[in-house]
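Q: Could you fold this chain for me?
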Amino acid sequence: MTLIEEIVRVVLIGCGATLVMDIWLMFLKRIGIQPLNFAFIGRWIGHLFHGRIAHASIGKASPIANETSLGWITHYAVGIAFAFLLTSIAGVAWARAPSLGIALLVGVCTVAFPLLVMQPAMGLGVAASKTPTPIKNCIRSLINHSVFGLGLFLSAFVIEWISR
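A: Sure. Below is the predicted structure, expressed as C-alpha cells.
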C-alpha cells in the first residue's frame, strides 16, 4: 500500500468512526438526550482564531460567522486526527487487520480531550465540574467516545472488507 493509500484509508476510518458517533448522538437525541451543539465547538474554534482560548460560558460568547459549519468540520477533523493517533500507536498495518481492543482503548482515551481541554475552555469546568450533573456528563462523554472507538474498528473493518 502506498503512502497516499494509507493516508486515504486512515482519513476514511476517522470519518467513518465520527459518523458512527454521530449516528449514536442522533439516537440519543431521538430518545430525549440532548447532545452537544456543534455550533458551540465552531464558536470556540472561531474565537481561538482571534486569540481567545477560554470562556466563562461559550453559550454567552459572541457568535462566529458560520460557527455550525466550523463546528462540524472541526468534529470530523478531530475524528480523523484520532484515527491517525490510533494508527501511529497500533501501526498502519492495524488498518488492514483491525482489532477491537486497541480501537476501543484509543476511543476511551480520547475522552480526555473534551474533559480536560474543551469543557474547561468552554466554561464547563474540568470534567464538566461546573455543570449541574458533572458525573452524568462525564459518563455520557465516556460512552460517546467508546462508541467512537467502536466506530474506528467498524470503519477499518468495512474499508478492508470493501478493498479486498
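A (continued): Residues 3-163 form one domain.
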